[in-house]
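Re: folding output
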Amino acid sequence: MLPWPGDLRDELAFAQAQEINTYQAFQSFIVKYPNAKQVASAKEKYEQLLSKALRQPVVRYRRMNFFIKIIPIAPTDKSQRTV
């Protein structure tokens, strides 16, 4: 018996979310395919990745701090900019 086309579509979409491996990818999968068999696994992975992302505010602050340091030394005059 052939698989239902929706099942194959869901499997491929879930595999793509796994390959990307971000909470946003799993969230998108859950929203687009709420009736997929993989939704429970996707929700679990989404919660793990979201929790991990929320525990890293210091890293984001450090990255932003880098740009704050660079902005004042960037040329403001358009004639000084290079392409």
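--- second protein (sequence, then structure) ---
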Amino acid sequence: MCISEFILVFHNTGDAIMAERKLLDSGVDVRVMPTPKAIGPACGMCLRINREEIHKARMMLGKTIREIFCRNERGEAFTVWNPEFKTNP
């Protein structure tokens, strides 16, 4: 089960910066962080958002998001959404 935050990963740094601005402008609590190495190859910047905001972020950012991860109680990151999935977090 996911804890309280989700990690949004992007194709490039420009997308991450644009996404941060859009989310902040709409009142979403978002924090920039380095992409964890456990997630694998990605641009070096990702965004953390609260669980309550995930649907809003997903609707606002759409295809800009490459993948969404969350962490379990042990701190392990796992994918909860990517373009291959048929469902949303």
